[in-house]
Amino acid sequence: DPLLLEYDDKDLRIASEFLSNWLPFLSRDLCQSCTQKLSHSIQSLHTDEIDSVPSTADVDCNGCDQDQGTCSVSCEDNVDNNDGRYEAEMETAPPATSETPKISWADMATDNVLFPEDETGSNPSCITAVESSPASGNDVKKKVVWTRDQREAFRFNAIERKKDFKCFEKVKGHYVNILEGLELHKGIFSGAEQKRIVKLVEELVELGKNNKLKERTYSAPQKWMRGKGRVTLQFGCCYNYAVDKKGNPPGILQDEMVDPLPDLFKTMIKRLVKWRVLPPSCVPDSCIVNIYEEGDCIPPHIDSHDFVRPFCTVSFLSECEILFGSNLKIVAPGEFSGSFAIPLPIGSVLVLNGNGADVAKHCVPAVPSQRYSRKTDLEKK
Q: Which intervals hold domain Fe2OG dioxygenase (predicted)?
């Protein structure tokens, strides 16, 4: 859309979060199919591929059995319990306004359900909308009240989930889909939530630099060549990447001391399970935070079977690609070639399971800018 070319990425990101907050009102009379199309269009506002973004007015009702002008099928009639639409019907929605409501970025940033004050979800969350009164011509402030459960339900329904990755390679004489078991979930963490998570990571890094964390929690190896020596934080258990000075082999070290999972990370894990990103039978009890500076990378590998499958990685600060292949090749320091690349948007979660975790190797080429990723695992007992 040529209109979008007039705005920079920051403005489009703000617009995307604003429209996401108003999705309950915008989709109130739409069916499930139309709601998903509208949600995907809103989420795509802040991607680089803005030329392909449809306007809301052009969204059609493919797969919808209602006329486009009279589409009013209740979303509760189209509940898909297998692919993650909330079962509960939303009882209230923001009132209609005569003009597009204006909302401040500060209001949007505080609309954060990751750390609600009331864990029971009974306390409503208010955001202030400003609308023009036709009678007086003056701006009138109104409180739009949504419960935490309502806001969480609409965000849950807006998640983009891709589970059909395919790449066939010959393994042990047979062609197999080496990406079977991979899942990419976009939109799990909002911009405000990401900011809060990144701030905590920065605080933990400072504690590590000042020797205020347990011995093996913080690690900052010397950078002796391009791509080598990224900073890591480990919580819950200590994983030894290579034979260390004590002669310990690679794998989980039972006797080494690391700090427990921070409360914020535990809340993130609850989100991943509640929003059906990870199964309730495999709740992570440890994590590794990788802190990439420009040029840092992760070489080709298959994650240790000391950790239960599935496991996942969450992306923050910047997007990068992760490469998969049964025979990844090192081209140069920080440069690799592989069969299949998957972009990892910020706020997304990549789940690795099946062939995607155990047959295909994966690697992260040298990143173009600073990036945080958080890998969560369940330790085998």
A: 283-380
